[in-house]
Amino acid sequence: MSKYLRIVFQNLEPLRISDDGISQGGQTAALRYIPGSALRGVVVNALSHRPDFESMKKMLLSQEVRYLNAYPLDGERELIPSPLGFYENRVEREGKKELENVVISGSFTEGNKRAALGSFCRRDGDCIYYYTPDTGSDLKIRINPEEGGKQGVFRNEYLCAGYMFAGYIAVDAAALEEVIRDVFQKDMVLGNARSAGLGKCKILSCGYAERLPYQAGKGVLYDAPVSHRHARRSRGALRA
Questions:
Q1: Residues 204/187, Cβ–Cβ less than 8 Å
Q2: Residue numbers of the domain that contains 184
Q3: Total domain count, the chain
Q4: How, if at all, do strands 65-67 and 86-88 pair?
Q5: Cα 173 to the center of its chain, rounded Å
Q6: Does residue 238 sit within a domain?
Q7: Is-contact 211 217, C-beta < 8 A?
Q8: How confident is the model over 175-216, as pLDDT tens digits?
Q9: What pTM does this model have?
Q10: 9 with 202: CB under 8 angstroms?
């Protein structure tokens, strides 16, 4: 039976983890969440100096240990990536817009538009609250271009400092439970451009849970399809 190590942390410095899916020449976009592969890198790097690392490496990189993405928190509330398939009424009433779920209905009312639910969201009663973390960027000059290339300027995006995240590591191997938890007893550095003062994260809490918060049953974020609900924009409201 899996146990889920819940790690809550805050990025004290801007954080840059490239989004290769939308990055293009001259511009590197940043992810708005922390991929599980980044947490895996923290674990493997921390344990690689142990004399017994070779014997545990196979388990660390097997299905017995699964590294899940870390998503932002809104206070104590855990967020999930915003779902697709919603259309919204253009008319706003008391700061809310009525939503239609085309996944359920198969159609949407004429005049409605595709709903922009930000990057992450949470459900509360008949409302979906949605959020988009703030990002910044810096410009750099390519000083030594490859032979035949042009010297130019490129832009790197980063996630602004001050956000809290909750990430999970699913552990099936009982022998690794305490070993992996011990890794997150001190602060960590994530992402790239670390020499530029980016990526330092403070561990706020770390402990095992019996289930994920978005599993079916009590305490879930979404236990049923959402239709004809409302949405309210809360951009940038997550930072401490």
A1: no
A2: 3-233
A3: 1
A4: unpaired
A5: 25
A6: no
A7: yes
A8: 999 999 999 999 999 987 655 678 999 999 999 998 888 765
A9: 0.81
A10: yes
